[in-house]
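Incident review: delayed structure delivery

Summary: a single-chain prediction request sat in the queue longer than the usual turnaround. Root cause was a stuck worker, restarted by the on-call engineer. No data loss occurred. The affected request and its eventual output are reproduced below so the record is complete for anyone auditing the incident later.

Affected input:
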Amino acid sequence: MNEQAIVNKRDKSWYKIIQSDEFGAFIPLLLIIIITTIFRPDFFSVGNLSSIIAQLTFMALTALGASLPLMIGKVDISTGRTAGLAGIIMASLVADYGMNIWLAILVGEMCSFLVGCINAILVVDIGINDFVATMGTLYIFGGARYLLVKGYQFSLTDNFLVKVFDKHYLGMPIYFWIMIVIYIIAFIINKKTMWGRKLLAVGDNAEVAILAGINVKKMRREAYIICSMLAGLAGILLTLDIGIGLPENGDGWEFRAIAGAVVGGVSLSGGKGSPLGVFIGISLIFIAENALIFLGVPSTMKIAVQGILMAGAVLFDTYRTNKKVQP
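Output delivered after worker restart:
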């Protein structure tokens, strides 16, 4: 390969990076950090950024799960309540029944698996509208969290695993490293495996995917199941972090997770998205919210920030989609 060919290849690589959805989400993230740091230099401190990253861990896992139905052109708005249900089930089994915490975690995840199966049956097999179906399970499993509560909190503070979660490893809590490992695995699956390609193919054009021999219903079921299991894991990790089982854990997570995924480049029409983009998107939302606090803006504006970022991402995605289909 001659020198000119190498230069051209590098130019194409840089152009591909600049045109990527991940880069599009990273630029506003970088701008927010720079602008806020100009007015408040302590914003860019190691302590503050570490705190933000630690806080977004649970939402990042939920957003990663929520991105899977979006990639196939569907949506799951029950993720927050699923997270809360898994956490409260795990805490209840340990605090009330003395179950081994590892077994309780497994039971909590199995309950999340069942939630995913129910969503998949309702949406994929019965054919109920995905928004309506998952809104129904949102209220059902959201209410189920409170059936397990007997008027008191489930304390796990004496459990050895909670004490492990209190410690930091390489400057970050263990649940952060768990999240990083899961994101690396998800990135490899998304970019390097046939399953990842099939997932995006289903979202891009289901009819073409069927002609290509892809089992579309199977892919959709798996997307919903994995989505619920990741949300359940996030709820369990949060419960272990705070050491208390609270039924309200997970409230409001679902739309925040979807916002993070969409801001990170996951298309609402399906067929596009990556774990890296999801992580950048959810980081953008958390850092933007934190920046408002540093700049003295009322914390009640957080919801407005989520709405503005998501609306902007949706408008941009709509523009690109329309531009793509134009002759």
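Verification: The beta strands are 154-155, 168-169, 172-173, 244-245.
Action items: add queue-age alerting; document worker restart procedure.
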